[in-house]
Design goal:
5-stranded mixed sheet; 32% helix
Length: 1080
Amino acid sequence: MRDHRRTHGLARLIDRFPALTLTTLIGHAGLSYEQGKYWESFWAELAMEREQEFENLLRTKLTSLLRKFKLCEFPEISNQQYVQTMAVHAGVPVHCLNDLVDVIEQHISLGREPSGAAVFEWLTQPGLEYRMNHLDVPVRNFLQFGGEAAVDIVDRIIEFAEYAREHPEVANDLDLDTSTTGLPSVMLEALIDRFEERPFGSSTAESGRVGRSRRPVIAYSRSDDQVVVEVPFPDRGSEFPWLVSFDGDSTEVYAERGWGLSEGEVHPPTRVRVPHRVREVVLRHDASEAHHRISLVDKDNPLLLFDHNGKPISRHLALPRGEVIGVHPATASLVDGHSGAPVSFTAEAVPAGWRDWRARVYDLAAVDSVRLRRDHLLGPVQQVRRVGAARLDLADPVEGVFTRSGLLVYSERPAVTLPVTGAEPVAWRVRVRRSGTTDWLADDEWESDTELTELDPFDGLAPGLLGMFDIVISGPLGQDIRHSMFMVEGLSVEHDSIFRIPTPDGLSPAATALEIAPPLALDRAFVEFPSAQRDSEFRVSAGQTVERLVLRPPHIEFRVDDIGAAARWRTVAPVLTVDDLTEHLIVAVRVPGDVEVDIALSDSVGRIRQTEEPQVNRDNLFQVSSRTFADTARSLRTATLLARIDTPDGRTTQVTVARVQPRLLCSGIRLDGGVLVFEGTDSDDLAAFVWPETAPWRPPTQVEIVEGKARLPAEFADAGPLTVQVFVDDPWAVITAPSRPDDTAYHVPQHGWLQDSDPARTELAKFLAGAGNPPVSGSALAEVWSAYANCYSDSSLSPLVRGGLLRVLGADPRSSLEALERSALPQAQLPALLIRTGLVDKDFSSYFRLGKHANPWLGCLIDIADLPNVVLQSAEESAEALRADLATHGGPALVELLSGKLREVYTGYFERNTIGMHRMAPEQIAALRDACEIVPGALLDPDTRRAAMFEAFARRLDWQSDPASHAMTTHSAALTTPLRRASPWVYDVVKARSDALTGVDTSEFPWMLMSMQSLLFAVVARLRARSLMSHPVFTAPMRQCWARLAELCPGLVAADLLIADALASYVLHHDVINKIGDHR
């Protein structure tokens, strides 16, 4: 090489040996690179004097060498960062490997999914990128830009780490090499050394390893066209609900127990609809100490991708070359990542509740990469699986057979198809093991041929596969496939009918014959299903191994729901009124098999009066709009909606989908001892929800009505007055209980109060019944909030009760605020509640932090209060996490305000031009607000604040006609001077809103003062909370008018309180937020 250099020069040397040059440069980055010392060690390895001319030439030639061998140039990496570019191609430098293994170890020890994609999702969760700070720059770049190759490397590290944990003698295993592990030899050697010195998992053993349990995931239901979160069954405390928060709007969810399963076993998840487009879903289960945070809509790339079955696709994995479901704003489109041409889609729907969004089924067979285009903005490119990648093809699952945790069951082995080879054969490794183990049952290496090669991944294993198996197909980096499936090889079932139909007793009787090939055996060959039984358990055995499976013959389901509401499938017909039919209801029927269906309306004697051809969707889903039957039903008064089903044998089956009649399920309810007596009932499928009025925090209890009577639970005897609401029940469906009773509910008087296992809750119930004092313990604060919020909907509660609840909430403002976050009260009520209770001008700081928040708005108030203490006293990582949460939930504008920058505060409020909107139609105002809310943003993002302004504008006349409007104007005059004295800087911010109204006649348009008054009251309150203002004192009339504004315009008041809190924090502590981390 030296001779060639002397003869032909440096440039010709590189041109003569391009592959050798590039391999040397990249290889050195992987072996010997340390920050800032790449070139020094490079020349030392070559045993040559450092030559600046040669070094500069190598830098100059790097881009052309990458292009020559079709390697990525990574333009995202800062310009002229040659070494970082080479380091990404090198993967993980050996000296950086320990930090990456530590991150993987911590990730798995906390019970998270042991996969490369899961590690990437956690490390790169939007707004929480600080988690990568303790990784070296080459590792960060590799994880960020390495694509699927990086995911595969992390997957292979995890597989080897788990193998090494089960086989401590791994260093002596001569079969371990690149071909068996898929890891480069230098990385493999470094991992072996690491695990010899420090076994995988040992560093987390002292702190305790969290058991791996099912985690919540976002999915898409194609049959119901809705985005759902799959809520797992908790590890313990299943009698307590999950608190599920959708950007602060919380609901309590009781996880459904799987059929025949007990606590401790793996249960199927409970699906909960994501009601609208949200940035984040937070799930919290205090009884099991579980807390999950799922990032959903990213404002910079508002795109959710799911496979053809509705399972989520990680943004770090290549997309399947076929059908995918893209959920994104209606004005956006998925385009080819190279040409920019729109990608064709074959179907489109509006996800339930996601107004102005679309769910489209895209065909990616002819594209290599995609990205989202919205207006003039382009999202990041996501690669499609290569044409030359392997493929795993599954057979159809066994109809009507499931594992007890709800998984599909397969009776035939899948097939692996290897792609056609190019000039050189490509080696593929196909391995199979039982899930939860590390030893491979089958481990074979195959080479692709000049034609497609199809093979059995279980090749070499005897017939009779039974249980859960992992299949791993490894090839070139970035093309690995990992899949788990439940096998019962040779199982076949034959149902005696195409479907079961609803009957008064449940479902029509059915029978199923089962057969299986040896060596597997069944505990029975024939299963009968009486009307009252939907499922049955059977067992399959292979020697000493026994698997319990669930058999569920196909049956008909239907639903009648509001458009955009959660899909509630049932087998008992609901009762509708004619007015219900005029609403936007979906009437849908799901029928298994090869059938034809129409929807008909019959009169009281069974004559068909109207027939409609339904729209046919995926999964044999037939649906029509209820409005099409409204006029006919109005003329009949009493009618029945029917699904008429034609089967191939020429028969027609009629199924009642809904009964149309005046809604009067009973005429009265009284209490006879421990039994509720219902008068005037005329149906066999009735049940009732019962609310104890002395415990308004309790969800309703469901009781079955039999022959007009229902026995109360023992705890409801002498438990005070009850509220009872009758409804049509369904034995095979989970009826979602309403949060509050409707106008058909009855009040049932009874003395006493509800007894509870918690003495504080019993004390509170007794106090609400008027027989005791408010609780002194803080363990029932969340229940106190529910009771206080209920005060304003129950005028019968005395001022004495309200006053007692206020004293409890005011005793410890921080604990009360944290308890409010744990409640399921609607987000829109929270600003008014803080104002009415007087907590709005209290200090929220504390030296003790409970952890992650479920409500972003309350969480920001708590984090701002804790910011000075955390920065001065906590570990660097805690401070970074707090700053990231404030930036993620509050937005960049909140961080700027906390640092004293006011640029973002001068937007999103009423100013003189707003008056021009006064004569716009309400529909136009709603459209402007909707446009701001299409992609949800942080709390102080410009679009979020503009949406709050349009919300306030829409309620302007309600506010103007309210006596609180005039009172607030009077009170504002009393607050202005004290504010100017306390903080001229903050006063100027409020004055800017007043100055923006110059030229507006506020006597004619008093509503124009809303945004100025909102901020004025907010800053006075938050300055008082920090003892920066001693006067004036907020009087009860001041709170009442401000709370009324918050009830009408919760978005405006919430945003202004957050702005005010940031301003007050800066006045007292100055720029404390920029003392964290990289900003220190």
